[in-house]
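Priority: low. Protein: Pirin family protein. Input follows.
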Amino acid sequence: MSNPILESAPLGPRWPCLDPFLFCAHHDDSYPASDGKMGVQAVELEGREMGSDFSAKDGFSMYHGDSVPGFPGHPHRGFETVTLVRKGLIDHSDSLGAAARFGGGDVQWLTAGKGIQHSEMFPLLNADRPNPLELFQIWLNLPARSKMVAPHFTMFWNERIPRLEHADATGKKTTVTVVAGELPGTERPLMPPPESWAAQSEGDVAIWTLALESGARWTMPRAKGEGTHRMLYFFVGQSLQIAGQDVESHQAMHIAAHSDLELVNTGGDTVELLLLQGRPIGEPVAQYGPFVMNTQQEIMQAMQDYRRTEFGGWPWQQNDPVHGAENRRFARYPGAAEDDLQPEAPTR
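Result:
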């Protein structure tokens, strides 16, 4: 076949996306031991622009956090966030009253809709050893008809996410983790929030992570929908082939969506990939910071609404709440009287 890689670009802090996706960030922070209060030891914070630190100095950023790294309370309207945590923990709090601590393969899916405030803090629980954190945050657009739906909070626990484990003729293994979309050979797919573009059959949305052992071969099946976009991000490993085309550096690739493509790990280490797939919504996008609408007038309205209503207000005492020093995962959904306890995340 002709070259399956239609376009490519090197990976940076923000990875290029195609409609219906708006944004993909890969946060990979080597946080040190904590100060005993879930924050970074004070000596490590010298020379940073505190409150807006994206420096990656000493291997980590504080982002908008003060003592605890992360993103204190902030608003969103008009799209969804999908957060995949590979290492470490995130403490979520929002204006619906929902709260969660999740990590180690868990996924949070948040529909902002007509407006929500939330915080995403990174508590450092280990005072005697480092606290690495690695995650993807993906922004998925909403069509105009769904931009003003009620906000929705969903958790997908690592143990319940479908996976395909495929051994090729030589016994080399490929593992595909299916956060969204269908993949033959896996269990029943997860159900995205009801108003999500991923919940619509015409959306053809898929969010997968792939891990190929050294020498492993796996054929990625073609997308179902006409006009579907596929972005494949090569972010771990030495080299691979896509339908015979060599890829020897980490990059974002717009790949052919309507052909089966054989992936081969041609390097000595495991190769890891992220796939973002979807049929374009095909509507105008107007964005101002945390608001994504269709027109500038709607952006102005979002700003006015937020100043007037604060999207339901903020029910937490702090702007950057964390959920205690206990190493556990949990979710408390809006209106729930008790926490939904989950077992400790597996070690990755």
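The chain has two domains: 13-50+59-159, 162-278. The helical segments are 296-309.
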